[in-house]
Design a protein that fits this description.
By secondary structure, the protein is α+β, with helices and mostly antiparallel strands. It is built from 13 helices and 24 strands. The radius of gyration is 34 Å and the shape is elongated.
Length: 539
Amino acid sequence: MIATVNTSAGAWLDYFSYAVLQNTIFLTVIFLVLYLLRSANARLKYGVSILGIIKLLIPPFLPGSFGSSPTPLGSALIDTNITLLPAEPAEPKLILASVIFLVWSSILIFRFVSCLFSTIKLRWQVRTASFIKSITMDNFTFKLFKSSDIRVPMSIGIRPRRIFVPDSWSTFPPAQQESLLRHEVAHIQRWDGLFHIFQVIAQSIYFFHPLVWLLSARVNDYREMACDDIAVEQSDITPLTYSRCLVHVAEKMLPTCSYSSASALIKQRNKLYHRVNYQVKESTNMKTYSKRKIRFMWSVLFLLFIPLSWYCKSSESPQEPPPGSGEDEKVSSALVGKIWGQVTHAETGDPLPGANVHVVGTTLGAATDMAGRYYIVNVPPGVYQLECSFIGFASMLIADVKVAVKASSQQDFKLKAAIIHGEKISVTANKPNDLKTESAIYIAYDEPPLPVGGWSAVQKHLVYPEIARKAGVEGVVTVSAHIDAHGNVIETKIEKSLGDNGCDEAAITAIKKAKWTPAKQRGKPVAVWVGIPVEFKLK
């Protein structure tokens, strides 16, 4: 489960980082355009703002093969000076990307549930509203309801046919009633309910982004101002009269100030002030833009969708790692080369994180990251053998791997599930995909065989041979163990030896003395071969 979360989180972080970077650039352009349109009418500014909201909801969809993720997970390199002890496969742990992914998902779900609960609560409040009459206004027919549980006129839904008003509705003059109803009809006819849903989704996904919150506030202001303009244009009242109507609404319908409602009241009054100021002052100084300039502006914004909608397409083999820095860069700039590639499951193509890749006969090696990638740097020029091992899978050896000065050699591994019969898979560097495995029989399992009591149960039986200790022998012994369906080690063989110094025998003895739980396939125990690396290092 943890391994699956780690793999998914790594892919999500790589992909989502592109969306964050590109949308930050796009929103910066949106705010620049809004600044240039500061003297324009609210409907034009609202349209530009909504375009920014829509861009937030469009994930990167254009594949590109250039560059790497803005937040690469990197690779785990084997330090040549590490202390090698009897091997104990590490239990999977949540990586940083997984923690970020889980926190992001939790907040996203919480915000969605909160918004859904608020909508349900509002519908529940108006369930007892009393019907007043049906009205046709601006070629739109709706039903008017009165409710004692609301304070301002409102409609609920994407394309509602009901408008709710408070109990104090009858105290308003007919002209004010008409203008307020036209305001709500404008919301419905402009599909503001749908765009509000888009806005909530964008805020939930990018809850951490300050530009998104700032844009959402602008959208709320421009939405109300645009509907105010429509209400004034389609009625017989003047902007000044309409502004007085808004002030009257504030006096009659907003709650009185108390310790618990003071903050909300101040916020409402600030928004109302902006709307009144827009109607009284800004509307008289409104600048009119030509259709040519407006078309040019929309064309530029829509064209920005293309360069800001790409993602780095993952190919079958990973991208070559960028040059290092610091001391690693100094060493890499010498007369050495690199070996890199990807380790995947031969049947499913899934990456295999935590697989070990090492250059045979040297101390150079690397472990694969969550994407199955590995990078081995500072390799002297020459011809090598490259070996990949992973518990539960057959080891693979690639021969004739040529490394040149300041050049990279790509070698990919496709590992088969645990082998029952047959020798180690070997291929040449010139034909990495030409696998000769007709004589081998493989079996996959859902749960690997594990020693009872953990890997420490194997380690407590491990004794460093005296001959090897005096001779200063260090290294890794890889043992293939055949563990039957009852958890018994019935056969072993050495896949990688340290020579005639007792290390091979010590590794086999420790493995045989341990008690094992068998591998399971679909809940049933099965007999499998597994590769177990045992490392020896003098202190």
